Amino acid sequence: MTDPLPTGATIGILGGGQLGRMLCVAAARLGLRCHVFEPGANPPAGDVAHALTTAAYDNTDALRAFAQSVDVVTYEFENIPTSALDIIEEIAPIHPNRRALATSQDRLTEKTFLQGLGLTVAPFADVSDAASLRDAIASVGTPAILKTRRFGYDGKGQARLKTPQDADAALADMAGAPAVLEGFVTFGKEISIIAARNPQGDISCYDPGENVHRDGILDTTTVPATIAPKLRTDAVLLAAQILNALEYVGVMGVELFVTPQGLVVNEIAPRVHNSGHWTQNGCTVDQFEQHIRAVAGWPLGDGTRHANVTMENLIGDDMDRVPELARDPKAALHLYGKADVKPGRKMGHVNRITG
Ligand code: AMP
Question: Residue 285: which CATH number?
Answer without folding.
Answer: 3.30.470.20
